[in-house]
Amino acid sequence: MIGAHMPAGKGLGAAVRAGKAIGCEAVQIFTSSPQMWRSKPVTPKAVDELNAAREETGIQMVVSHDSYLVNLASPDPENRVKSRDALQAELGRCGLYGIPYVVSHIGAGMGRPVEVAIEQAAEEIRAILAATDESVTLLAETTAGQGSSLNSNFDELAALLAAVDSPRLAVCWDTCHLFAAGYALHTEAGYEEMCAEFEAKIGLEKVKVIHFNDSAKPFASRRDRHAALGEGEIGAEALGRIARDPRWAGVPLLLETPDAETMHAENLARLASYRAA
Ligand SMILES: [Zn+2]
Ligand SMILES: [Zn+2]
Which of the residues 57, 140, 153, 242 has an alpha carbon 20 to 30 A from that of 207? Predict the structure, then answer.
């Protein structure tokens, strides 16, 4: 399944239709503004509109990305509670919309020991999962490792998953972030080594979504800057190897490349050609 993060300014139904128009088989959206704590309640009309668009386009797989403000590992008690409430509300909205996956950056320890940050995030995730519908799974995204953000390596992810211990917590890979964090997926050997490490520490079946981006910044730079497919430091050959890997047959590969309005169609065509090669 290939697709893209689609702007949802005109509503979720419109985002799904716009995705279909450029060749998406799956779509990622924000259900609420990613820069704001407050969100509007989900109306039955909005649910109907999304369902009608899914019916019409055949796009069943819709994925949500949470607010950028959420930091479950925040040392600030007020920010911690706001983050919990916001992510819980996000899972609540997705339950109403029938959206199975919420991708989240989880958080950053802000200078505290990693174990403390992970334990706090795990505690918040357990509370959020307990308060929300079973149909929604939270996906912890691999990060580029900028600042003190958690989950730029598989040991931290494994510790978080073990601490939460729920089938409703899984993983979203991001090819740009993994590369920036120092996983050498631009080479065949490095990619296989990364897959083997993930399989040993977590299990590849836990990868439910892959954000499919090239990287504008070099290998192991710990800088998070997405690039158009084949125009970055990962390159078309390596991205093609990942796109054709039969292990991802049922996993949505979703673009988060720049200039959605003008470039998503082109990037999606490139992704489709990688897969077909
Ligand atoms: Zn991503
Ligand atoms: Zn990114």
Answer: 57
**CA nearest 145: which of 102, 178, 185, 117?**
178
pLDDT above 90: residue 187 = yes
- CA of 209 from ligand 2 middle (Å) equals 14
Domain 2-276: assigned CATH number = 3.20.20.150
From the list 136, 196, 200, the residue with the least C-alpha distance to 166 is 136
Angle at 174 between CA 168 and CA 175, to 5 degrees: 145
Q: How would residue 159 be classed by pLDDT, with cut points 50, 70 and 90? A: very high
**Angle formed by the axes of helices 44-57 and 77-97, to 10°?**
60
Residue 180 sits at the vertex; the CA angle it makes with 175 and 186, to the nearest 5 degrees, is: 60
| Predicted structure pTM score | 0.97
Which residues neighbour ligand 1 (ion) by CB within 5 Å? 174, 211, 256
85/66 Cα distance (integer angstroms): 12
Cα(256) to ligand 1 centroid in Å equals: 6
Residue 214 Cα, ligand 2 centroid: separation in angstroms? 10
Nearest ligand to the CA atom of 173: 1
Q: How many residues does the chain have?
A: 277
